[in-house]
Specification:
Elements (H helix, E strand, L loop, with lengths): L6 H17 L10 H31 L8 H14 L24 H8 L7 E3 L4 H10 L5 E5 L6 H6 L4 H8 L3 E8 L6 H7 L9 E6 L4 H4 L2 H4 L3 H4 E2 L9 E5 L2 E2 L11 E5 L9
Parallel strand pairs: 1-2, 2-3, 3-4, 4-6, 5-7, 6-8
Helix pairs in contact: 7-8
């Protein structure tokens, strides 16, 4: 690779290039009138875009010469993973610009870091809907086939039904259940979406280790008697997935079949229900 002898040669080259490109074409402002003026502005705007792209290319090459960017992608991924644990983004969606985004700032440093981060599925395994459905869907794509933490826990008590109306949560769970390591859901049994959500859990979850599933106190299961709840069998009875590695299970305001629970590897079990239900779950 040949490197210019001095900065003077670079200055001479780009000055000469600018003169050849611009001097004879745009050196007569007094002649710019009417439609010709708009054409000149459009042409100059294109020139600016090209120069900006050239500067971006030069910055990319400059950053590539930094010692840190000579590290293998695997090492950078490990460093990014450590930063992810200590610089955690907010768990709620910010209201405006200029907010803290935690470790995600490293994707804005340079194109090489961004490329390494985007091609490291282990960095995108936290699928959190409280940051917005777009963020969650992007995390699902970037995590590829890696085991994920799937969390739908609205930050405000009135949000579940509104959010479920925008998200096909049941389809997402069914599609990715096989690679879920943690499943944390807070839903509203009043919502029609609760039926496909319950149905989506009837599958195999070979890497699932933890389940947290609860309904809000305003749900049908809490507000009605057991006899009334029987009119909503899909809402009151929850089928658990086939999860041989399940260690922790927390269910609130749901009934389920004990026969569907595998106790062999279970370490922690937490159950809660409405006080109006007299029979055991």
């Amino acid at each position: 690779m040949s490197i210019p002898d001095s900065t003077a040669s670079a200055a001479d080259y780009w000055r000469s290039a600018a003169e050849q490109r611009l001097l004879h074409s745009y050196d007569q402002p007094h002649c710019w009138q009417g439609k010709n003026l708009k054409d000149v502005q459009s042409a100059l705007a294109l020139e600016i875009d090209v120069v900006a792209a050239l500067l971006c290319s030069l910055r990319t090459r400059y950053n590539a010469a930094a010692p840190v960017n000579r590290l293998p992608p695997e090492v950078l991924t490990n460093i990014f993973g450590i930063l992810k644990k200590v610089d955690i983004p907010p768990t709620t969606k910010p209201d405006g610009p200029g907010y803290h985004i935690g470790w995600l700032r490293l994707t804005h440093v340079c194109s090489q870091w961004r490329s390494v981060a985007l091609h490291s599925p282990c960095l995108w395994t936290d699928v959190i809907f409280s940051l917005g459905s777009n963020w969650a869907e992007e995390s699902l794509q970037r995590s590829r086939t890696a085991p994920i933490v799937f969390e739908f826990v609205p930050s405000k008590p009135w949000e579940p039904r509104r959010n479920l109306a925008k998200i096909n949560l049941g389809a997402l769970i069914a599609q990715h259940l096989h690679r879920m390591r943690v499943l944390n859901l807070k839903t509203d049994a009043d919502s029609k979406s609760i039926i496909p959500i319950c149905a989506s859990l009837r599958g195999e979850a070979p890497v699932l280790e933890e389940i947290k599933f609860s309904n809000l106190p305003s749900s049908l299961l809490i507000g009605n008697t057991r006899a009334q709840a029987q009119n909503h069998p899909h809402e009151r009875m929850l089928s658990l997935p086939i999860a041989p590695r399940l260690r922790r299970l927390q269910l609130w305001y749901f009934h389920f079949l004990w026969s569907s629970l595998i106790f062999k590897n279970l370490l922690n079990l937490s159950l809660g229900r409405s006080h109006k239900h007299s029979a055991d779950s």
